[in-house]
C-alpha cells in the first residue's frame, strides 16, 4: 500500500485504492482491519474493508478463504472502475509455492510458479488483471522497508499454524538454506521453468490461431491436419485448452483422455466418428475438420438454473458472462440453457448458429419467466422489454 502510494505521488497519479478483507475466521480480525484503515487514512490512501459473510467451511479453509477474498476484491474493483490488483507476493512466496507443487507432483505449468502479471483468479472477472510487483524481493526486504519508515505492521497468526501445508514447507526452509537450496535459487528455478512454459504457450496459441475457427456461440471447428504436423506436447495442450474452454471446465481434462483424443484427431478414418470428454462432444465432419461443442447432456447435469436480477452480471456455465440491464415486471427470471424446448420457443426469428444450428443453440443460455422463454441473447431473441447480453468468455481462456 505504501509503496504504491509513493509511486502514485511521484508520477502525479491518483492514489491507489487499498482493500482489506476481514474473513471473520478469528477473533480480532475486525480490529486489525480497522487498524489498516487508519494507516491508509494517515497516508491519504482511499481504503475499503470488505467482510466475508455467511457460514465458513471447516475443511480446505485457506482455499475457500482465497476464493472468497478474490471474489470480494474483484466485485469491488469493478464497481470502482479499477482493473489492476497489486498483491504483495514475494520471492519467499514463490519458493514456497514451487515446493508445494513439487510435493503435489505438478508438471511444468505448476512448477513455473507465479507470474508477475496474471489473469484475475476469478473467472467472472476476465476484464481484470493481477500484478505482483514484489515477486523478486525477499520478505525480509519488505520488513526492512517498513522498519525504515517507522511503520508497524500486522502479522497473520495463520502464518504460524503448522496444520497448513504452506506453513509446514516454510518451517523446512532453514534446513534447505543450510544445504544451499535457498529461496532465491528455488525462485530462480521457477523463473527458468516459466520461460519454458511461455515458449510452449506461444506455440500452442499459434497452433490454435492457425488451425481453429472459434465461434462466439461456444464451439470450434478444428483443422486436424495441423495437429498431425505439430509436436505432440503442443497438440495435446491445444486440445486440452480448447476442451476446457468450450466445455466449461474448471480444470483441464484428464491427460489420458486428451491423449486418446489426439490419436483420434490424427486417424482420419477412426471409428467412432464422434466422442465425448471434458463436457464436450467431438464430431468428425465431411470436410475433414472436427467440431468441438458443449455436450448438452453434461450441461444439463452440471449447469444448474439460477435466478437473475436487473443490474446483475453472472458467469454461467463458466463460459458466458450474462448481463441483465433491464427487466420490466416483477416476476422472477431464471437463467438456464435453452435445450430443445427453448430453441423451439425462440421460433423462426432466432438467429441460429450456422453449424449444427439446433444442437448448438440448445447449449446456449436462455432467460425464463414462469416457465416461458423470454430471452435467448445469443440468438437475438428478446421479449417483455428485456435488455440482456451474453458474451462468450471461454475464448479469453485460450
Would you kindly provide a written description of the structure presented here, covering whatever features stand out?
The protein is an alpha+beta fold and about 400 residues long. Helix content is about 40%, strand content about 20%. A five-stranded antiparallel beta sheet has the order 6-7-10-9-8. It has a five-stranded antiparallel beta sheet with strand order 11-14-15-16-17, covered by helices on one side. Helix 4 packs across helix 7 and helix 4 packs across helix 8. The longest helix is centred in the middle third of the chain and has 29 residues. The mean pLDDT is about 90.
Number of helices: 14
Chain-averaged pLDDT: 90
| Overall geometric form | globular
Total beta strands: 18
Query: Strand pairing plus helix content: what structural class?
Result: alpha+beta
Biggest sheet, spatial arrangement of strands: 6-7-10-9-8
Q: What helical percentage do the residues reach? A: 40-55%
Question: Largest beta sheet, briefly?
Answer: 5 strands, antiparallel
- Unreliable runs: none
Straight-line distance between termini: 33 Å
Question: Radius of gyration in whole Å, from Cα?
Answer: 24 Å
Portion in beta strands: 15-25%
Amino acid at each position: 500500500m505504501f509503496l504504491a502510494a509513493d509511486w502514485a505521488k511521484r508520477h502525479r497519479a491518483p492514489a491507489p485504492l487499498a482493500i482489506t478483507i476481514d474473513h471473520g475466521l478469528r477473533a480480532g480480525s475486525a480490529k486489525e482491519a480497522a487498524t489498516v484503515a487508519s494507516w491508509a487514512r494517515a497516508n491519504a490512501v482511499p481504503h475499503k474493508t470488505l467482510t466475508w459473510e455467511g457460514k465458513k467451511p471447516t475443511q480446505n479453509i485457506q482455499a475457500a478463504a482465497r476464493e472468497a477474498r478474490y471474489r470480494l476484491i474483484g466485485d469491488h474493483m469493478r464497481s470502482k472502475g479499477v482493473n489492476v490488483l497489486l498483491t504483495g507476493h514475494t520471492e519467499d512466496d514463490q519458493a514456497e509455492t514451487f515446493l508445494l507443487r513439487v510435493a503435489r507432483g505438478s508438471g511444468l505449468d505448476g512448477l513455473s510458479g507465479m507470474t508477475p502479471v496474471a489473469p484475475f483468479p476469478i473467472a467472472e472477472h476476465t476484464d481484470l488483471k493481477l500484478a505482483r510487483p514484489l515477486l523478486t524481493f525477499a520478505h525480509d526486504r519488505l520488513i526492512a522497508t517498513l522498519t525504515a519508515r517507522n511503520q508497524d505492521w500486522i502479522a497473520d497468526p495463520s502464518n504460524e499454524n503448522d496444520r497448513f501445508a504452506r506453513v509446514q514447507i516454510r518451517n523446512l526452509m532453514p534446513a534447505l538454506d543450510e544445504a544451499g537450496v535457498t529461496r532465491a535459487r528455488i525462485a530462480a528455478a521457477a523463473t527458468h521453468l516459466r520461460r519454458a512454459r511461455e515458449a510452449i504457450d506461444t506455440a500452442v496459441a499459434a497452433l490454435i490461431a492457425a488451425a481453429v475457427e472459434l465461434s462466439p456461440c461456444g464451439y470450434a471447428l478444428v483443422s486436424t491436419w495441423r495437429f498431425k504436423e505439430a509436436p505432440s506436447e503442443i497438440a495435446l495442450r491445444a486440445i486440452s485448452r480448447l476442451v476446457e474452454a468450450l466445455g466449461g471446465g474448471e480444470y483441464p481434462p484428464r491427460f489420458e483422455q486428451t491423449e486418446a483424443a489426439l490419436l483420434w484427431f490424427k486417424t482420419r478414418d477412426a471409428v467412432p466418428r464422434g466422442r465425448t470428454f471434458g463436457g464436450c462432444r467431438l464430431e468428425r465432419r465431411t470436410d475433414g475438420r472436427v467440431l468441438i461443442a458443449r455436450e448438452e447432456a453434461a450441461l444439463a447435469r452440471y449447469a444448474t438454473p439460477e435466478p437473475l436480477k436487473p443490474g446483475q452480471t453472472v458467469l454461467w456455465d463458466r463460459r458466458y458472462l450474462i448481463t441483465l440491464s433491464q427487466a420490466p415486471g416483477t416476476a422472477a427470471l431464471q437463467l438456464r440453457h435453452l435445450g430443445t424446448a427453448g430453441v423451439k420457443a425462440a421460433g423462426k426469428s432466432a438467429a441460429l448458429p450456422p453449424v449444427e444450428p439446433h444442437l448448438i443453440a440448445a447449449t446456449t443460455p436462455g432467460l425464463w419467466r414462469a416457465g416461458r422463454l423470454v430471452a435467448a441473447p445469443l440468438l437475438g431473441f428478446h421479449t417483455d422489454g428485456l435488455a440482456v447480453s451474453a458474451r462468450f468468455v471461454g475464448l479469453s481462456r485460450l
